Amino acid sequence: MDALETAQLCAKYADDKKAENIVLLDLRGLSPVTDFFVICSVGSSPQLRAVRDEVVVQMREQHSMKPLFVDGSFDSQWIIVNFPNVLVHVLSEEKREYYSLEELWGDAPVVPWAPEVPAPVEAKKKATKKTTVAKKATVKKTAVKKAAAKKAPAKKAPAKKAPAKKKTA
Question: What is the pLDDT of residues 30-89, one digit of tens each?
């Protein structure tokens, strides 16, 4: 997995825990330390922990990638998760504004990033699949009925009785 893909996945996992204002900076050629920064803001210490944990756990479980190290503390309101060639910065809004990493690395191009398509599209796909299965079942039933009708002898309609003649006296 290349560094850009790692950065995008880290951004996605941070977004899954409602991190805000997620920015990816391309530092290739600008920094000897890393290729990408993922910078995001959180509103509280519990969210700081949740974002850090989500990024670390998902990268390990889904992509077999462990961070080289995790630094910072909840008291400092700034956690750094270091993957090969990607540094993930999770900061409180106040610390992010104070340290202004985007301005400090102002020469670095911002990598366009957007969260994945929302889940309702997945629900729509499942609904479409169910509809398709139901249509196939209806078509199959109709075909079975037609085949059975061809095999069965044709039923004759009952003969109509002629009206009774009136007797004249």
Answer: 999 999 999 999 999 999 999 999 999 999 999 999 999 999 888 899 999 999 999 999
Among 145, 152, 3, which Cα is nearest to 63's?
A: 3
Rounded CA-CA distance 162/160 in Å is 6
- Residue 8 and residue 38: Cα distance in Å, rounded? 8
Of the candidates 105, 89, 74, the one whose C-alpha atom is nearest the C-alpha of residue 41 is 89
Distances (CA, A) of 161 to 79, 158, 164: 96, 9, 8
39 strand-pairing partners: 23, 89
For the chain, give the number of residues.
Answer: 169
The pLDDT of residue 121 is above 50: no
